[in-house]
Amino acid sequence: MHTHKPQARANVHLIDHPLVQHKLSLMRNKTASTNSFRRLLNELSSLMAYEVTRDMALQDVEIETPLEKMNAKMIDGKKLVFVSILRAGNGIPGRCAVGGARRARGPHRPVPRPQNTAGG
């Protein structure tokens, strides 16, 4: 039995939104085709990104609209990177970070592989 430190659980986001649950059920159905599974995986990754960014800090930025200048809200800080854990396929649409790891023999620790950025 593995015990996890409370700090590790603090970074886990439980997404129990009804639409996410619905899409997961459609994906799990044994009658789901490969194409529908991939489409649902893509939709699900967008919903998950929406949920995990819910509490991100915002900053006011002045922009110019076609009518006038205004203060608008933008995500505060550096660029975001979403990393997909590739088990059943990569569902993150567009540009995403691709990294790798394998499980080492003995003490089950991940061994990193070279990282790359995949274009989309």
Describe the overall structure.
- The protein contains 3 helices and 4 strands, in the order H-H-H-E-E-E-E.
- It is α+β, with helices and mostly antiparallel strands and 120 residues long.
- A hairpin with a 4-residue loop joins strand 1 (58-64) and strand 2.
- Helix 2 (18-28) packs antiparallel against helix 3 (34-52).
- The N and C termini lie far apart (40 Å).
- The relative contact order is 0.11.
Give a count of the beta strands, DSSP E runs of length 2 or more.
Answer: 4
The percentage of residues in β strands lies in 25-35%
The main pleated sheet reads as: 2 strands, antiparallel
Low-confidence stretches: none
Strand order of the largest sheet: 1-2
Summed over residues and divided by their number, the pLDDT gives a mean of 76
Distance between the termini: 40 Å
Q: How much helix is in the residues?
A: 25-40%
Order of helices and strands: HHHEEEE
Structure classification: alpha+beta
The gyration radius over C-alpha positions equals: 19 Å
Q: Please tally the helical runs, counting DSSP H or I stretches of 4 or more residues.
A: 3
Shape, principal axes of CA atoms: extended
